[in-house]
Write a structure and sequence with these properties.
The protein is mainly alpha-helical. The chain has 16 helices and 3 strands. α1 packs antiparallel against α2 and α6 runs parallel beside α8.
């Protein structure tokens, strides 16, 4: 969980405090907000305070969307300030529980890797790949870091490529190949006396750093607002002035897909969809001192939901369920062809 702002542009303690305040205002989003706050505390150097936030989440009576992720982040943080035994115990527990989300696996494997436990890291990445990537299936986007991390560790161990390493190579789109990116000799080249070798390595590192900074510089997705059919019917029954914005539910869904494709074709990255509810929208309107019937409030509401971590990434994989909730695969639903906004 990285904070959403480059490190040199933010007061991490102040940002953590701000996120904790927002979590108090929106308890339904507390998990995502407090995880971001804990990440800022880690970057500030206050790792005990970050652990306190992780413990606060894990002791929550409301339950968590992803307790394995919270435990993985806690383990990684603990190991960084000399609580190795507790961190190892948590990592062992995560591996034994075999979560279906790739993120906890990546975090604990990278924690092992960063402490030179390369064999254990490779075993962890491989265990996760075997669990989450059945043969013959297209790897979901969320599993790509798992494959890249496994490739990196195996490269450092000098192990030969296997089918998952080949798959990682196929998925990787950067001009610098994974084999070059993960070459252990790159580290040694930083100690070279050859100016040309140093310059080449610095150029590669700057390119990688630029990609990371670009990813971190956008705090939340450019999100389009989606109303499920029942919510849209309730919204229009209460606020008839919005009917011009939503002539029908089918038109609303088609417009979402068309808008996102247009944004994507213009080069806009980090796109997402947020799902609205009438009670949430009314509460937002009250907080803004504005009538819910004001169409200008709709994009502000979408942006606020995205800032609170409510967005799902668009587009889904073609074999994944469509974002509209139809239950069909995206490639057979709204991802099937170029959309036209119905009226």
């Amino acid at each position: 969980m990285r904070p959403d702002t480059p490190a040199e542009n933010v007061d991490h303690n102040a940002e953590a405090a701000r996120l904790e305040r927002i979590a108090g205002m929106y308890p339904e989003d507390a998990e995502a907000l407090l995880l971001r706050a804990a990440a800022h505390l880690e970057l500030s150097g206050d790792r005990p305070a970050a652990t306190t936030l992780y413990d606060r989440l894990l002791s929550s009576a409301d339950g968590l969307d992803d307790p394995h992720l919270v435990r993985a982040l806690k383990a990684s943080n603990l190991w960084e300030y000399d609580h190795e035994a507790e961190a190892r115990a948590i990592i062992d527990g995560i591996r034994a529980s075999a979560p279906r989300n790739p993120a906890p696996w990546v975090i604990v494997a990278e924690s092992l890797e960063s402490h030179d436990e390369l064999e254990a890291a490779e075993e962890t990445f491989t265990q996760a790949a075997g669990l989450l990537l059945p043969d013959g299936t297209e790897p979901p986007y969320a599993t790509h870091p798992l494959l890249y991390g496994r490739h990196r560790v195996r490269r450092m161990l000098g192990l030969p490529h296997d089918h998952w390493d080949t798959l990682a190579d196929t998925l990787h789109t950067s001009p610098v190949s994974l084999d070059e990116l993960h070459d252990p000799k790159r580290v040694w080249s930083l100690g070279s006396d050859n100016p040309a070798e140093l310059a080449a390595e610095i150029s590669r590192l700057n390119a990688e750093l630029g990609a990371y900074r670009e990813a971190l510089s956008r705090p939340f997705p450019v999100a389009v607002l989606h109303w499920p059919a029942a919510e849209l019917a309730e919204l229009l029954a209460a606020y008839a002035d919005l009917a011009t914005e939503y002539p029908s539910h089918d038109a609303h869904l088609a417009t979402i897909e068309a808008s996102l494709r247009e944004l994507a074709s213009s080069g806009t990255p980090n796109l997402g969809i947020v799902t609205g509810t009438v009670p949430s929208y009314e509460a937002f309107a009250a907080s803004e001192g504005t009538s819910p019937s004001d169409p200008a409030l709709l994009p502000q509401y979408a942006t606020t939901l995205a800032a609170r971590g409510r967005a799902i990434a668009w587009p889904p994989q073609r074999t994944a369920s469509c974002w509209c909730g139809s239950g069909e695969a995206y490639g057979e639903c709204h991802g099937a062809s170029e959309p036209t906004a119905a009226v």
